[in-house]
Amino acid sequence: MRERNGEKKIGKPSGRLGKSGSIPWSKGLTKETDARLESKAVAIRLKYKEGLLIGHSKGKTLTPQHCAKISNSMMGNKNAHHRGDRQSYYRDIRMDSRWEVGTAKYLDSIECEWRYGELGYKLSTGRYYYPDFFIYQDNQLVKIVEVKGYFRQANREKFNTFLAEYPDMKVELWDRNVLGRLGIINKSGRVI
Questions:
Q1: Domain ranges within the chain, ordered by starting residue
Q2: 87-181 maps to which CATH number?
Q3: pLDDT number for residue 124
């Protein structure tokens, strides 16, 4: 914060910039500025409660066609920008989670030949399944490793469809237990 004419202003905090070059919103908050933000949030919630503010879809009835259109527009990884908080990089490869980065580092530490997300498999449903890691030995695919912390229902169904339609593929699911046993993550789920 900086002062001018006895008035405190919230200034741009110093420190590291985010990937987009912007300063994270939470940098520079103090008890005083946080209280101000909280009082504004309380006022906005009160306006919603009193009906002075209305959400963009509150009170509207969506037709089944409109719901289907929204659902279809959100299918697939083309809208994966919501996962930006979990994306990480390793060896110039964008991975979807820190657990995947930890897995890549582990595979490097045991001198395993691997590739990340190199192939997609078309399923009978018309969708594609893109496994996380492809493990090779002497340039021959040995197995696929899928790193998963949580399976949403649609993802579990897609994974099970892949297993059923490609029964000759050796696939391993590395979940919290496997990653912990391999020493990739600790008990709280943080990458070691």
A1: 19-75, 87-181
A2: 3.40.960
A3: 94
